[in-house]
Amino acid sequence: MLIDSHAHLEMRDFDRDRNEVIGRATQAGIDLIITVGTTVSDCEKAVLIASQYETVYAAIGIHPHEVKDIDEATYGDLKRLAKAEKIVAYGEIGLDFFRNLSPKDVQIRRFGEQLELASEMGLPIIIHDRESHKETLDMLRGWKGKQGVVHCFSGDYIMARKCVDMGFYISIPGAVTFGKSEKLQEVVRRLPITCLLLETDAPYLTPHPNRGKRNEPAYVVHTARKVAEIKGLSFEYVASVSSQNARSLFGIS
Fold it and tell me: Against a cut of 0.70, is the pTM above it?
């Protein structure tokens, strides 16, 4: 029993074999997949995919790379999509000062707006944070909505502890299997398993031993095995607890 708490099945990378990808995940023991929209059109596609597959749920939101394109219709479209049956989170939203594909000031303003929208919708949030740790923490401290998760965590243990103390989960991607991921491995080692989710971020960040291939939800098993190894726990226990964490966060019985 495993949950891939963050994938992008709606992306074009999966258009040719999405059904087979989801089938392989099921065969690998993946019970549920959360597919996460990043633009309005991709959110619409995520909602459609979730309606077609029993094991897939969806999150909606505008990625920091894309917030420069938010217009007067965007938030109305997201409110409409939020009424779909299998929407479990708002995201991914946040800040990305590594690539700055949207200007920093625009990212900060839109992040604040989307935090308010998530609160209005009563949804937990999925946070994207890259090279923006201080600003992300500052904005989350002032948020009064439901809890959430910092996806594909890239900070250090001190930041992780601050996020957990605010009620957030930390999501561990396949990068934890990389040889040079000492900082992420320390986060895994020091945080309780009750604070962790597991994810692929497919089609990105393919874990060892599949590096070089397109990532897909079935590969979350490699992340679970690495987390179990780091923490000295059984694979079964890591799978069970991380999945229960995801169900609790996303309100999936």
Answer: yes
Contact 29, 2 (CB under 8 A): yes
Mean pLDDT of 162-174: 97
Return the sign of the alpha-carbon dihedral for residues 227, 229, 232, 235. Answer: positive
What are the pLDDT digits (tens) for 174-196? 999 999 999 999 999 999 999 99
96, amino acid identity: D
Has residue 146 got a pLDDT over 90? no
Q: To the nearest 10°, report the CA torsion of 204, 244, 88, 31.
A: 60
The burial class, CB within 10 Å (0-12 / 13-18 / 19+), for 77 is: middle
Q: How many residues does the chain have?
A: 253
Cis ω on the peptide bond leading into residue 203 (within 30° of 0)?
A: yes
Average pLDDT over residues 116-139: 97
Beta bridge partners of 89: 59
Residue 166 confidence class, pLDDT cut points 50, 70, 90: very high
- Radius of gyration of the chain from its Cα atoms, rounded to whole angstroms: 17
Give the homologous superfamily in CATH for domain 2-250: Metal-dependent hydrolases (3.20.20.140)
* Buried/exposed code over 38-61 (b: 16+ C-beta within 10 A; e: otherwise): bbbebbbbbbebbeebebbbbbbb
